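---------- Forwarded message ----------

FYI, see the MFS transporter record below. Original note from H. follows.
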Amino acid sequence: MDHSINNTDRPPYGILAVLMVGAFIAFLNNTLLNIALPSIMTELDVDAPTVQWLTTGFMLVNGIMIPTTAFLIQKYSVRRLFITAMGLFTAGTIIASLAHVFPVLLIARMVQASGTAIMMPLLMNVMLTSFPLEKRGTAMGIFGLVLMFAPAIGPTLSGWIIEHYDWRMLFHFVTPFAALILLSGIFLLKDKKDKVELRLDFVSLLLSSAGFGGLLYGFSSAGSKGWDSPQVYGTLTIGAVSLLVFILRQLKQDRPMLNFRIFKFPMFALSSAISMVVTMAMFSGMLLTPIYVQTIRGISPLDAGLMMLPGAIVMALMSPITGRLFDKFGGRMLAIIGLSITVVTSYYFSRLTLETTYTQLIILYTVRMFGMSMVNMPVTTNGLNQLPARFYPHGTAMNNTLQQVSGAIGTALLVTVMSIRSETHAEELADSAIKNLTGQPTPAALAEMKQQIAMQAMLEGINDAFFVTVLIAGIALVLAFFIKRAKPAEDIIEATPSEKKIGNKLVEN
């Protein structure tokens, strides 16, 4: 692949450091923006469904771009891809910091997303080709430590900045760091790549964009528009049909843009299934907890961020420890323990009340994140370990794409459960309140009763949504018992001549 990259005796720590810092800045930017959405709504005069496009649009671009990274990583050098990715991200950040109308801000976010989409698969591919199998868990653990600190400090830092400055300061804060990383990549990355005769299949690109983009948009819109909206089921149908045609086309091609044959490797297929399920469960904490804390309990954004900070820090600090444990014991034990903790804590989250204390929430959320820290990285690494080197770009691209899709599905599912169950509970509580009424209540008492019913109904809806995550995490726990320590398997799939050529370059260089 790349000279000076694939030397397992001495991994390219300088290159990895530049890539990791770049990925950290990109991830930090994503976590900074969530708390700023209400401020952006007020200043740019847009409603909630519109401002949500800053997240949905970002996700859509990721879903469209990530499947192409398998082709890009095989075609171009690490230096060229990193400079392109960081250049796009920096340009998007600068445009966003100057935006005074919503369309400009949305375009800037999509430009950022096009850079971020390349960054993660590129970094994971370099990690896989730089470290031998027996040290890969530790290396991925360090990689996780760096990236997990972004969501650890993001919400709290964002809350503080929003309370003291304009929301544009979030982008002003990131810009100099992004520019510095871009310059570092230009001067420090020196790897070269032998010319590889690969051409992008534009029909596959179109089908992939319509497939993954349609699914992401459909599931992302379901929560706000409802499943009976033509916009939702129409895009889901287009996405599903396009994705099916895309998969069939890839299976027939000698040089597929994204190789679905990697699912013939059992541990990779199993790890993908577990990772998707865990991502769906993880989104429950990220989505439902802030709604409960801020909407029902009236806790400020800064205090909500501080509440989640210990859990994110624990997850980050556990990453290198989990990596070492993975190298020693494999992924099965870690996944079983981690998912057991996730199931138990998710159950306790499904029993929240209006009297649950702030301290209880911190402890529960922290323990839940501790459990999840034992799952994602070990399971993903174990699955990728079974792939021959020639399939690394496809494996990393596939994992990142499936995480985007499962995140959108998880969010749509949980929002739907919360909304439907809240309405049901509201009707039940209203009927019960009417039966227990004595005399004619005053308008003020009636308004207060309606507000209490609405809050209690939303709380019960959140609890029901959390209970769904108990079932989801339970499925992942059952699957975890089938995990076996993976080793590279060369004989499951017969490589095409072009894949053999690329695979040989990966090993030789």
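H. also flagged this: The chain is about 80% helix and 0% strand.
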